């Protein structure tokens, strides 16, 4: 699920998913490495920041794009079949989900501090050995005022 092999003419490409990103990592048989973003249908260099041109390395860009989009679609379909959507509790939000890697935020009331909240961020990699297991990334107890400040910060950034 997390790795695919693709052949175009005499070239072989190893395709892998990248955690925390919708991009596909592509390693060509000639040693070149680049990324493909299925949403924007754009190519990026091995650092993931600059543009990459498959044609510069003699790769048919239209064929490669079409095949990578097909791989991405099949990968997402397979992941959906493997882990059907369960009812998400009210206290959980999906922060990021590319079909293989997810970030979740949890918020639950706690006894102490009074009127406080437990705030957790977890990640889940569906192609991992234990795909249902979530890993804790951040934990904090927040007072109501801290939670309001977090809300205000998010609203300010989203209004830009």
Q: Which structural class should the secondary elements be placed in? A: alpha+beta
Overall outline: elongated
User: Which percent bin holds the helix content?
Assistant: 10-25%
- Give the low-pLDDT segments: none
Count of individual beta strands:
9
- Total domains, how many? 2
Strand content: 35-45%
Rg result? 20 Å
The helix tally amounts to: 2
The strand order across the widest sheet is 1-2-3-4-5
Our measurement of the CA-to-CA distance between the termini, rounded to an integer number of angstroms, reads: 37 Å
Mean pLDDT: 84
Major beta sheet summary: 5 strands, antiparallel
Element pattern in H and E:
EEEEEHEEEEH
Tell me what the structure shows.
By secondary structure, this protein is an alpha+beta fold. Helices cover 23% and strands 38% of the residues. It has helices at 61-82, 144-158, and strands at residues 3-8, 11-17, 24-28, 33-37, 42-44, 92-97, 101-110, 116-125, 135-142. A five-stranded antiparallel β-sheet has the order 1-2-3-4-5, covered by helices on one side. Strands 6-7-8-9 form a four-stranded antiparallel β-sheet. Strand 2 (11-17) and strand 3 form a beta hairpin. It is elongated, with a radius of gyration of 20 Å. It starts with a strand and ends with a helix.
Question: Care to give the gist of this entry?
Answer:
The protein has helices spanning 61-82, 144-158, and strands at residues 3-8, 11-17, 24-28, 33-37, 42-44, 92-97, 101-110, 116-125, 135-142. The chain is an alpha+beta fold and 160 residues long. The chain has two domains: 3-82; 92-158.
């Amino acid at each position: 699920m997390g790795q695919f092999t693709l052949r175009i003419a005499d070239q072989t490409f190893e395709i892998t998913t990248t955690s925390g990103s919708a991009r596909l990592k592509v390693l060509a048989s000639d040693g070149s490495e680049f990324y493909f973003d299925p949403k924007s249908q754009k190519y990026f260099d091995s650092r993931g920041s600059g543009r990459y041109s498959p044609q510069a390395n003699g790769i048919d860009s239209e064929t490669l794009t079409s095949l990578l989009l097909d791989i991405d679609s099949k990968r997402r379909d397979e992941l959906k079949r493997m882990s059907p959507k369960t009812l998400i509790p009210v206290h959980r939000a999906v922060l990021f989900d590319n079909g293989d890697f997810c970030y979740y935020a949890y918020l639950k009331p706690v006894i102490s501090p009074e009127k406080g909240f437990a705030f957790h961020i977890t990640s889940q990699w569906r192609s991992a050995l234990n795909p249902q297991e979530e890993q804790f990334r951040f934990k904090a107890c927040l007072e109501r005022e801290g939670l309001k400040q977090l809300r205000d910060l998010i609203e300010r950034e989203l209004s830009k």
